[in-house]
Amino acid sequence: MITAIDTSVLLDFLNHDPDFGTASRDALRSCAAAGPLLACEVVWAEIAGCFSSISDCRHTLRELEIEFSAIQSEAAFEAGVAWRVYRHRGGARTRVAADFLIGAHALHQADRLLTRDQGFYRSYFKNLRIVDPSKT
Which pTM was predicted? Predict the structure, then answer.
């Protein structure tokens, strides 16, 4: 079972979030026990501020058994389609947002997404299987 990791879960863990840090850590462990963990370039960019260097980032993600997984063209296209639906629903963002790329990456390149932002992902990626650490 391949699990894509959303930024929210990694930030919970890396920043020792008092509300969600423990649940996110436990969910990461559980998902790692079930199979590979992936993080796309958007997630890497969003967590970069937690590290002093790329080598520190690589080391930490390797310790967490999280692999870098670049977004494939099909997933990037799906993100754009989901963004178009968002805009037609009245969404104000004028560029494809990170969450659309993360959701499409998980849908096309993993079996599920570990995230606390399940409402957003369920709205735009109906077939995406979600694991929410705050609900476990």
Answer: 0.91
